[in-house]
Design a protein that fits this description.
mainly alpha
């Protein structure tokens, strides 16, 4: 992996901690595109490492902690949107 930008290594721990791209941009001083390219490069490296080292592992349970996301809208907003206009 090539690290042409001197600030790129400082961005990696922030990505691992779940910081936002714009927050990392402000803290590290890199362009948003540089951070996104780093994320793609590191992800490809992780994929390669896992494909080379982890083989023939039977998965019985998958646990995903601290993964939260909103798809479309929050419950309160969804309830308002689903009601007919006359009831609102």
């Amino acid at each position: 992996m090539v690290w042409p930008h001197p600030r790129r290594p400082a961005a990696l721990p922030l990505l691992c901690e779940g910081s936002g791209i714009r927050a990392i941009q402000r803290v590290v001083g890199c362009h948003q595109g540089t951070i996104l390219k780093l994320l793609v490069e590191v992800g490809a490296g992780c994929e390669q490492l896992l494909s080379e080292t982890v083989k023939n592992v039977a998965v019985e349970d998958v646990q995903a902690d601290e993964v939260w996301g909103y798809v479309h809208c929050k419950e309160g907003t969804c309830c308002r949107l689903c009601k007919p206009a006359a009831i609102r």
